[in-house]
Amino acid sequence: MSTFDDLRGLGMPVPQANALGLPINAITTATTAQATGTALLPGLNVLTTAGSQTACVLPATLPLATPIFVHNSTATAGLVFPPSGGAIDGGSTDASSSLAQNKTAMFIRRSSTAWIRMLTD
What we know:
This protein has helices at 4-9, 14-20, and strands at residues 24-28, 38-39, 44-48, 55-57, 67-72, 78-81, 87-88, 97-99, 104-109, 114-119.
Protein backbone atom coordinates (compact mmCIF):
# COMPACT_ATOMS: atom_id res chain seq x y z
CA MET A 1 0.00 0.00 0.00
CA SER A 2 1.26 3.46 -0.84
CA THR A 3 1.69 6.07 1.82
CA PHE A 4 0.03 9.45 1.74
CA ASP A 5 3.45 11.03 1.06
CA ASP A 6 4.09 8.66 -1.90
CA LEU A 7 0.80 9.65 -3.52
CA ARG A 8 1.29 13.38 -2.91
CA GLY A 9 4.79 13.06 -4.40
CA LEU A 10 3.20 11.78 -7.58
CA GLY A 11 1.01 14.90 -7.77
CA MET A 12 -2.21 13.41 -6.43
CA PRO A 13 -4.61 15.93 -4.80
CA VAL A 14 -4.57 15.88 -0.97
CA PRO A 15 -8.17 14.61 -0.48
CA GLN A 16 -7.60 11.71 -2.84
CA ALA A 17 -4.17 10.91 -1.32
CA ASN A 18 -5.80 10.90 2.13
CA ALA A 19 -8.48 8.48 0.95
CA LEU A 20 -6.09 6.07 -0.76
CA GLY A 21 -2.79 6.46 1.06
CA LEU A 22 -1.69 5.42 4.52
CA PRO A 23 -0.34 8.35 6.53
CA ILE A 24 2.57 7.55 8.85
CA ASN A 25 2.38 9.35 12.21
CA ALA A 26 5.16 9.62 14.79
CA ILE A 27 3.38 9.50 18.16
CA THR A 28 5.26 10.63 21.26
CA THR A 29 3.66 9.19 24.38
CA ALA A 30 4.05 10.85 27.76
CA THR A 31 1.78 9.09 30.26
CA THR A 32 0.44 5.68 31.30
CA ALA A 33 -3.24 6.64 31.69
CA GLN A 34 -6.15 6.57 29.26
CA ALA A 35 -7.38 10.04 30.23
CA THR A 36 -4.04 11.64 29.36
CA GLY A 37 -2.80 9.21 26.70
CA THR A 38 -1.63 10.55 23.35
CA ALA A 39 -4.34 10.48 20.68
CA LEU A 40 -3.70 8.14 17.76
CA LEU A 41 -4.35 9.28 14.20
CA PRO A 42 -5.73 7.42 11.18
CA GLY A 43 -3.04 5.42 9.36
CA LEU A 44 0.15 3.94 10.81
CA ASN A 45 1.11 5.26 14.26
CA VAL A 46 4.71 4.69 15.35
CA LEU A 47 5.05 5.05 19.13
CA THR A 48 8.17 6.77 20.40
CA THR A 49 8.95 7.84 23.96
CA ALA A 50 11.54 7.99 26.67
CA GLY A 51 11.07 5.71 29.67
CA SER A 52 7.92 3.80 30.41
CA GLN A 53 5.32 6.45 29.56
CA THR A 54 3.62 4.58 26.71
CA ALA A 55 -0.15 5.25 26.75
CA CYS A 56 -2.04 6.11 23.59
CA VAL A 57 -5.76 6.25 22.81
CA LEU A 58 -7.65 5.07 19.73
CA PRO A 59 -9.74 7.78 18.01
CA ALA A 60 -13.41 7.89 18.98
CA THR A 61 -14.35 9.35 15.59
CA LEU A 62 -12.74 6.71 13.37
CA PRO A 63 -15.38 5.39 10.94
CA LEU A 64 -16.64 1.86 11.58
CA ALA A 65 -14.56 -0.93 9.98
CA THR A 66 -11.64 1.41 9.28
CA PRO A 67 -8.28 -0.09 10.30
CA ILE A 68 -5.75 1.86 12.32
CA PHE A 69 -2.22 0.51 12.78
CA VAL A 70 0.05 0.92 15.81
CA HIS A 71 3.75 0.01 15.84
CA ASN A 72 5.59 0.10 19.15
CA SER A 73 9.20 1.21 18.66
CA THR A 74 9.68 1.98 22.36
CA ALA A 75 11.80 -0.02 24.81
CA THR A 76 8.77 -1.08 26.87
CA ALA A 77 5.26 -2.37 26.15
CA GLY A 78 2.89 0.18 24.66
CA LEU A 79 -0.52 0.67 26.24
CA VAL A 80 -3.23 1.11 23.60
CA PHE A 81 -6.50 2.29 25.15
CA PRO A 82 -9.94 2.44 23.53
CA PRO A 83 -11.76 5.77 23.67
CA SER A 84 -13.52 6.37 26.99
CA GLY A 85 -16.32 3.84 27.45
CA GLY A 86 -14.89 1.43 24.88
CA ALA A 87 -13.43 -2.07 25.06
CA ILE A 88 -10.88 -4.01 23.00
CA ASP A 89 -11.61 -7.65 22.09
CA GLY A 90 -14.53 -7.85 24.52
CA GLY A 91 -12.32 -6.99 27.49
CA SER A 92 -13.06 -4.65 30.36
CA THR A 93 -14.34 -1.18 29.59
CA ASP A 94 -11.50 1.37 29.33
CA ALA A 95 -8.80 -1.34 29.71
CA SER A 96 -5.63 -1.08 27.65
CA SER A 97 -4.26 -3.61 25.21
CA SER A 98 -0.53 -4.20 25.65
CA LEU A 99 1.68 -4.03 22.57
CA ALA A 100 5.17 -5.49 22.97
CA GLN A 101 8.34 -3.74 21.84
CA ASN A 102 8.90 -3.81 18.05
CA LYS A 103 5.44 -5.28 17.40
CA THR A 104 2.62 -3.96 15.23
CA ALA A 105 -1.14 -4.38 15.67
CA MET A 106 -4.17 -3.41 13.64
CA PHE A 107 -7.25 -2.13 15.47
CA ILE A 108 -10.71 -1.96 13.88
CA ARG A 109 -13.70 -0.15 15.36
CA ARG A 110 -16.71 -2.46 15.00
CA SER A 111 -19.30 -0.45 16.95
CA SER A 112 -19.51 2.76 18.96
CA THR A 113 -17.73 1.08 21.88
CA ALA A 114 -16.20 -2.18 20.57
CA TRP A 115 -12.76 -2.61 19.00
CA ILE A 116 -10.99 -5.64 17.52
CA ARG A 117 -7.21 -6.06 17.72
CA MET A 118 -5.20 -8.14 15.26
CA LEU A 119 -1.47 -8.66 15.62
CA THR A 120 0.40 -8.42 12.34
CA ASP A 121 3.09 -10.98 13.16
